[in-house]
TrEMBL record:
<feature type="binding site">
    <location>
        <begin position="146"/>
        <end position="149"/>
    </location>
    <ligand>
        <name>substrate</name>
    </ligand>
</feature>
<dbReference type="InterPro" id="IPR011060">
    <property type="entry name" value="RibuloseP-bd_barrel"/>
</dbReference>
<dbReference type="Pfam" id="PF00834">
    <property type="entry name" value="Ribul_P_3_epim"/>
</dbReference>
<feature type="binding site">
    <location>
        <position position="70"/>
    </location>
    <ligand>
        <name>substrate</name>
    </ligand>
</feature>
<comment type="similarity">
    <text>Belongs to the ribulose-phosphate 3-epimerase family.</text>
</comment>
<dbReference type="InterPro" id="IPR013785">
    <property type="entry name" value="Aldolase_TIM"/>
</dbReference>
<feature type="active site" description="Proton donor">
    <location>
        <position position="179"/>
    </location>
</feature>
<dbReference type="InterPro" id="IPR026019">
    <property type="entry name" value="Ribul_P_3_epim"/>
</dbReference>
<dbReference type="GO" id="GO:0004750">
    <property type="term" value="F:D-ribulose-phosphate 3-epimerase activity"/>
</dbReference>
<protein>
    <recommendedName>
        <fullName>Ribulose-phosphate 3-epimerase</fullName>
        <ecNumber>5.1.3.1</ecNumber>
    </recommendedName>
</protein>
<keyword id="KW-0479">Metal-binding</keyword>
<keyword id="KW-0413">Isomerase</keyword>
<dbReference type="InterPro" id="IPR000056">
    <property type="entry name" value="Ribul_P_3_epim-like"/>
</dbReference>
<feature type="binding site">
    <location>
        <begin position="201"/>
        <end position="202"/>
    </location>
    <ligand>
        <name>substrate</name>
    </ligand>
</feature>
<comment type="pathway">
    <text>Carbohydrate degradation.</text>
</comment>
<keyword id="KW-0119">Carbohydrate metabolism</keyword>
<feature type="binding site">
    <location>
        <begin position="179"/>
        <end position="181"/>
    </location>
    <ligand>
        <name>substrate</name>
    </ligand>
</feature>
Amino acid sequence: MAVPPQPTIVASVLPANYADLGGQLLELEKAGVDRVQWDVMDGRFVPNLTFGPDVIAATRGLVDLGFEAHLMVEDPDPMLPRWVEAGCGIVIVHAEACLHLHRTLGRIKELGARTGVALNPATPLAAVENVLDLVDLLLVMTVNPGFGGQRYLASMEPKIAAARTLIDARGHDIELEVDGGIARDTIGAAARAGATVFCAGSALFTGPGSMADRVAALRAGATAEETE
């Protein structure tokens, strides 16, 4: 019987204290997260504004954690080199935002980064079926993007399961990530649906215990058996 992969915990820094961003990254690293996600928002694709590449670059040397850029922007193509130069080893674009998704993914690979594609809740899995050969990470949004602290959409679990089936059937080495409302009481259902990478924000920065305790609770929740 195959051993299920260990969960990968990705920290969204959207809820971080921006006045001490470097300190927050060091705390996340010490707490045991696996990667950091930078939620890049342009105020157009989503109604919020966040980080630019200079902010990411300024913090890159502080930690050894991998960085992924989640580009919630209308036209990601012109800025792709900037995110890679800033130190993001994974660049995630939204299928809804790319006029020529195949070309965009190819460009990210040319820049030397791993490719990611995100799907909003209303976007069907079919939007990425024909580019999976270029995809290193598939992100199923479990909230509508734009703001932290939203409620997890359990209605996305069949989509997660369908994505897992498709990835396995094609034989691709693709990470399946979920993002939105991931907490100790929701991560288990997402894991059972087939996700192996879990992006959490509020659940890491707030709640009982230390940040390390909260990371441990997420890992435990992702591997726990379903209870009646």
